[in-house]
Amino acid sequence: MLIEEALFLIDEIICSETGEHLNDLKQAICKGIFLGQKYDVIAANCRYSHVYVRNLASNLLDVLSNRFQSKVTKKNLIAVLERNRKISESNNSALPDSNTAVSQPVKREEFLSPKQDLILSRIKQL
After folding, report:
1. Are 59 and 83 in contact (CB under 8 A)?
2. Do residues 13 and 63 touch, judged by C-beta distance below 8 A?
3. Taking the model in full, what pTM does it have?
4. Which residue intervals of 1-126 are DSSP H helices?
5. Best CA proximity match to 14, nearest among 59, 69, 78, 72
6. Are the CB atoms for 55 and 40 separated by under 8 Å?
């Protein structure tokens, strides 16, 4: 899964749960998590305190945990997103063939609900 795709999915989930999109700091935290960075490194890069970044990350992971109904941590975030993408694909009868690698990047549209797909197609028209 590409970072941009994961950020898009996380943004959609956070927005649907809280009504707010990811801001720059929250995106930087997610990117840092995907890159395996520690919170103090993310904080230094963003010029925020380590405690503030850790607390904000904890809040993001709690929202994702509630949405996925399983504990989401810094260490398992990517696995949870991949697992739920697979579940979503199987629910839509769009199972990848057995020759497709698990880590193969997917198109952003595969994460979209019909409503989101309509919005995206409308944006492309503009």
Report:
1. no
2. yes
3. 0.67
4. 3-18, 24-34, 39-46, 50-68, 77-91, 114-125
5. 59
6. no
- Give domain limits for the chain: 3-94+105-125
For residues 9 and 80, is the Cβ–Cβ distance under 8 A?
no
Task: Give the C-alpha separation, 34 to 122, whole Å.
Answer: 30
Query: Amino acid identity, residue 25?
Result: L
Neighbouring CB atoms inside 10 A of 107's CB total 8
Q: DSSP letter for 108, please.
A: G
CA distances from 103 to 3, 43, 70, 78, 79 (A): 12, 28, 22, 11, 10
Residue 96, both tokens = 């990848």
pLDDT tens, N- to C-terminus, the chain (126 residues) = 688 888 999 999 999 999 999 999 999 999 999 999 999 999 999 999 999 999 999 999 999 999 989 999 999 998 898 887 777 666 665 444 444 444 444 444 444 455 555 555 555 565
